[in-house]
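Lab notebook: predicted structure, single chain.

Context: the supervisor wants predicted structures on file for every construct in the current expression panel, including those that have not yet been purified. This is the next one on the list. No modifications to the sequence; it matches the entry in the shared construct table.
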Amino acid sequence: MKFIVSKEEMLEGIHTMNSFGTRLTGSRGHNRFIGWLKEEIAKMEIPIYSDPFYFRRWEEKRSSIEIIDGEEKINIPVSSAYPYSGQTDSDGITEELVYVKSVKDIPKTTGKIAVFNVANINFLPSEIAFDKRSSYPEDVVLEKKYEGPVITSFVQCFYGIISKLSKAKAVILIWKGLHDDMIEGQYLSFITDYQNIPMLWVNETNGKKIIEAATQHKKAKFVLEAEIEQDALTESFYCIIEGKNKRENVIVNTHTDGTNCVEENGPIALLQLMKNMKDMQLERTHIFVFTTGHFRLPHFEDIRTGAFQSVSRWLAMHRDLWDGKGEHMKCVADLTIEHLGCKEWRDIDGEYRYTGKPEIDLVYTGNKFMDRLYIDTVKERKTVRTMTLRGHNALHFGEGQNFFTMGVPEISLVPAPYYLCVVSDSHEMEKFDIDLMTEQTETFARLIEKIEKISAKTLGKSDGYSILKAKSVSGGYDFSLHGLADKISSEIRK
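Prediction complete. Output recorded below exactly as produced.
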C-alpha cells in the first residue's frame, strides 16, 4: 500500500474550486463544485450515492448603510451581512439610529435601527473550550484567552432575538476589539436559525461614526436585499471502496460548502486519497462522505446522533453503514479532514498580517491510542505545528464531533484561522500554503495505512467529553472550577 499525493493536482483542484465562486450551502457555486467532485470521482469508476435535500436558502445580494445628516448622506461601508438574518426591499429602511449601551436602552429601539457593540470574546481562558492531549513540537500553545471573530459571533448571537422582542426594524452590529481587516467579509454567525430581522456588520472604525450619529439622534438608510429560494436543492453524497472485510469500515469525511480556499478544501484532499485507494487491496471497506449543510446547521443538524454538525443528518439516515447493530456495518475509526494549508495571520502591532508560521493544526483524537497514533505519524513531516484535543465541556469543533459523541474513535483535523469564514475576491489564497496541505494529506494517507493493520479492539472507542477539568492548552494552569474562580477574582481586582 503506497500513496502518492500530487501537489500539482491538488493546487489545480483548489483553483477549479475557486472558479465556482463562494460555495454557500445550496448556492450556484456550491452546486457546481459538487457536480465537479462527482465528475472527478466518476472518472475513477467509484460508485456515488446521493442524498438530495431541499431547504429555504437565503443569500445577500446588496447591502448599504447611509447616515442622513440634513441634506448630506454619508456612506458607511458594510463589512458583511449577518447570514439568514432578514431582508429589506430595494428602498431599505430609513429610521433613527439607537445605540444600545445597556439593557435600559433596548425598549428605545422599537420601530428604529438598533446599534450594538459586539466585543471580542477575550476574557475567558482557552481551557473553557479545549482540553489538551498532546502537542508537537512540545512548545506549541494556544492563546491564553481563546478569541477571534468566529467564537465571538457564536457566543454573542442573541442580538437578533433581542431586537425582535423590542420590535426594532433593523440591526447594526459593530465589531469591537478586532482589527478592521480581520473582520472584512466574515460570514458570521452561521449557527443561528432564520432571524426575521435584517442585520449588518460594520468594523470598529466605521462603527464609531454610527455611534456618534446615534447619540445625535440622526437617521440612517439601511438596505439589505437578499435572494430567497424556498425549495433550494443541495445534496450530500458518499462513496464506498470495498475491502476484504465487509463488516468493518473506516469513514473519511468532510463537507463541501464553504466560503474560501481553505473553508472547505477537504474534498480536494479526499479526491487524492480515493484516487490512490481505488485499486488497492484493502483489508477494510472505506466510506468517503461529502456532506452539505455545514453553513446551514440549523436546518441540517440531527440531534439523534448526539451533536450538531452537518454529518449528523447523514449518520441518522445511514445507520446501517456505521453503528454495527445486527447486520449493520461497524465503523471502527473516523478520519475528518477540514481546513488544510492554513497560514497563521494575526494582529501584530496594529497590522493584520502573516506571522511566518503555519496555523496550529487543531486535531481532536478520540482516545489515547488514536492520539499516540496521530502524534507518531506527524513526526514524519517536514512542517508541523499541531495540538491534539479531547472533546471538552460538550464542545468539539468540526465534523468529527458526531463520531466522537457516538463512540467512534476519531482523528479530526480542524485548524481555526481567524479568516476561516471570510468571503473575499481573492478566496484568501494569500493565506494558503499548498505545501502544507500536501503534507497534511500525506499524514492522513499514512494514518489510513496504519489503521488498516490495527484491530478494532486496539482502536477502541472514543472516551467521551472531559468535564470542567482540562489540561492547559496555553502553557498556563490546568483548568478547574477553583482555578477559574481565582482567575475571575484576579481580573476583578485589576
